[in-house]
Amino acid sequence: MSGPVLKDPFSWGKVDMAGMARCLLVLCKQVYSIFIKEDRLLHLSSACYILGDLHGNFRDLLCFEKTFWRLGPVLTPASLLFLGDYVDRGQEGIEVVAYLFAQKVLCPHKVYLLRGNHELRNVQDMFQFHGECRRKFGIDLGEQVWEEINRCFDAMPICALVDNRILCVHGGIPSLDIKSDFFKLVSQIPCPLRDPENESPLAWELLWNDPLSNEMRDLDNTNNDFILNVRRGTGYFFSSKALNDFLYQNSLSYVVRAHEVQQQGFKVQLNGRLLTVFSSSHYCGGENEAATVLCDSNKLRLIRLDTSS
Predict the structure, then answer these.
(1) Which member of 8, 155, 159, 295 has the lowest number of beta carbons within 10 Å of its beta carbon?
(2) In order of start, what are the domains of the chain with their CATH numbers?
């Protein structure tokens, strides 16, 4: 007598993938109607959990759920803010997107999703997500699912402001003239935004910019607040002075961003005014941890995730 048939953890088993794709297409239409009405700059109140890159790590996303919103976002006192990069690198981008889109539809005023630099078609073509859609749903249906998901990405907000003092964004601060009205300019970013690189240089920098490390500052003798980001081939590195000027000009206390893997899941930078959070452990086979940030009353609490269970 044979025993029970076991399936791999988080696999769909014998799910009708065509039916799953049709459900995703319906979900995309629902969540698009929410994204398209949201401001490019979200205004949120604390308390708020802030998560960085997930990169197709569905297992860690479920660990976050189990730890921080076990009863669901509706019954969780804090809001949930995700800083982008939901797909690529990992193998479960579809699962991550489906989960987050469903939570957004169920709790549109408790769950907030920002766009990252991997929510771009040309980036996904270089990495896994485009191929993942085709592999899981077939070429024709997979292409349709991929395009509809990216249509939703095109309508996502670009950044968020918590308690009017903490700016949350995927990449970093932009190289604007110090006298520019940042909040007004963000509100004018086109929506939907299919091609940020050509349609909105401001949005492009918010998605791609990085802080300048101490080591890089020592190597740079131009004394500029922004230098070309040669590591990524696009965007800029910004200095501690650039960040301080930006915070002062816009009456801000901190910037919380994602975009870079961190060994402990987070890193405090630029004299304590910049916080990088990364929420996918064992990224690309590495040994890094995953973390989240609890923002409450203009205070930031760093929390590492236990992914052992």
Answers:
(1) 8
(2) 38-304 (3.60.21.10)
